[in-house]
Specification:
alpha/beta, Rossmann fold, seven-stranded parallel beta sheet, two-stranded parallel ribbon, 13 strands, 41% helix, globular, binds nicotinamide-adenine-dinucleotide
Length: 323
Amino acid sequence: MKPIIVTGAAGFIGFYVSKQLIESGHEVVGIDNLNDYYDPSLKEARLAQLHTHPNFRFLKQDVSDYDRLFSLTKSIKPTRFIHLAAQAGVRYSKENPRVYATSNLDGFLNVLEVCRHLEVEHLVYSSSSSVYGVDAQLPLVESAAVDKPASFYAATKRANELMAFSYSHLYGLPTSGLRFFTVYGPWGRPDMAPILFTKAMLAGETIKLFGEGRPIRDFTFATDISEAVVRMMEAIPSSGGSAPHQIVNVGNGSPITVVEFVRALENALGVKANVELVGMQSGDMEATLADTTLLHTLTGFRPNTSIETGLSRLASWYREYFK
Ligand SMILES: NC(=O)c1ccc[n+]([C@@H]2O[C@H](COP(=O)([O-])OP(=O)(O)OC[C@H]3O[C@@H](n4cnc5c(N)ncnc54)[C@H](O)[C@@H]3O)[C@@H](O)[C@H]2O)c1
């Protein structure tokens, strides 16, 4: 079996995908630039877990440096390439849009070029529910028009889908874009609400609920995401039609309001939240809810972890990790 490349392996989702792959007998080469968008010690701690397994190797590398990316990956000759490295975060894309262009546009083009030249059999890459954008109709289904991104982050993710389509069409490179819906769980990103809220609630601080807590989110547990990614790796799109390319939602399919999320987190942590209801943030979507019919058709799997189970695991991990 050839090693599988996972970019963003030190990141939240990359960690879970790498872990699941190595535990099921695959060899994984993880790539990440270990940037300091959030505390890199969390990335190092995730890597330390992965390094306990002999089937994991790590290369510190920026995907925006094509020459080095190509020379490092050439010797590996991967047949599967899972690209999860990106500048994530809707809100930060207002502050620093250029870093999104470098990592998500230049970096993505480099990954396409590497996969094309190395004749990779399947490139699976992360897109986002944020591509559904302004005026989206629920449930969010892959065939909907997605040409009104509400943030520059979402615009780069939609651009990735179009870039991938062009490479699939031009060079026959099989590509699958996965639109992840608000991922949460242990080892989660400190810039996202589940970890931000957990930290503030345990410290007795007030949490701000944008949109007065009314926005609806399809929170999806991290191991459900990794299960979907690993299954999708073998769901290679066929060359029939105009391009071997597909886009697939990966979401829980049972959304809740942010207020309901906070109530469930209170139960998991055993503390009461002090909340301040504030207005909507620009760039955020009002509501997300994934239609997961296509994911189920392709893989036989649908995310199924309940919010109670997921938050109880998050709470235990948080207390242990930050004790
Ligand atoms: N977490 C979510 O809820 C969510 C939802 C939708 C989509 N996504 C997408 O899933 C992917 C993974 O997200 P995550 O939540 O694990 O984020 P993350 O920030 O934890 O992981 C991304 C990793 O990529 C690395 N990285 C960033 N730029 C890089 C570059 N130029 N070269 C090499 N490495 C680089 C970072 O160091 C980080 O470790 C991203 O593409 C993100 O946009 C995440």
